[in-house]
Write a structure and sequence with these properties.
This protein has two domains: about 50 residues, no CATH class; about 80 residues, no CATH class. It is built from three helices and three strands; from the N terminus they run βββααα. It has a three-stranded antiparallel beta sheet with strand order 1-2-3, covered by helices on one side. A hairpin with a 2-residue loop joins strand 1 and strand 2. Helix 2 crosses helix 3.
Length: about 140
């Protein structure tokens, strides 16, 4: 990681991590920001990817939050609390499915672009179709 500063902007660079056998090489990051260059800029950029994925999960690909038409802040707060708990549980379920090697049962793509949340949601839907009661654990498997 290297950083340079000029004017009101700085540039943070990160080399791609070492490529594992059979994996595609990751692109290096070049991030221009008004914050000082450094590892914290790269960390925030990495977190941004999780945030973008979370919005995708809450909206069009998951809960369709954009279709609720709720305008009352109190009701929206309650709904967000419930969705946060369910998201946490589905993420945990997706991690569990992935770690047990069961991902192919709900995601048949050769190169998956599904989030662990979506894997958990698909697993839940699969269980409900098979009339199986899902195991609700509130302790993360991380």
């Amino acid at each position: 990681m290297t950083g340079w500063g000029w004017g009101a902007y700085s540039l943070s660079l990160s080399n791609a991590p070492q490529v594992k056998r059979g994996k595609k090489e990751a692109d290096p990051w070049y991030i221009i920001t008004t914050d000082p260059a450094g590892p914290q800029v790269l960390y925030l950029y990495a977190v941004r990817g999780w945030i973008d994925q979370m919005f995708r999960d809450l909206k069009g690909q998951g809960f369709h939050l954009d279709q609720t038409r709720l305008e009352d802040p109190t009701r929206l707060d309650r709904l967000m609390l419930v969705l946060a708990l369910i998201s946490w549980w589905l993420l945990d379920l997706g991690i569990w499915v992935d770690r047990l090697g069961l991902r192919r049962r709900v995601d048949r793509a050769k190169k998956s672009k599904c989030s662990l949340f979506m894997i958990g949601l698909r697993w839940l839907k699969r269980m409900l179709r098979l009339d199986t009661i899902p195991d609700v654990r509130w302790v993360p498997v991380l």
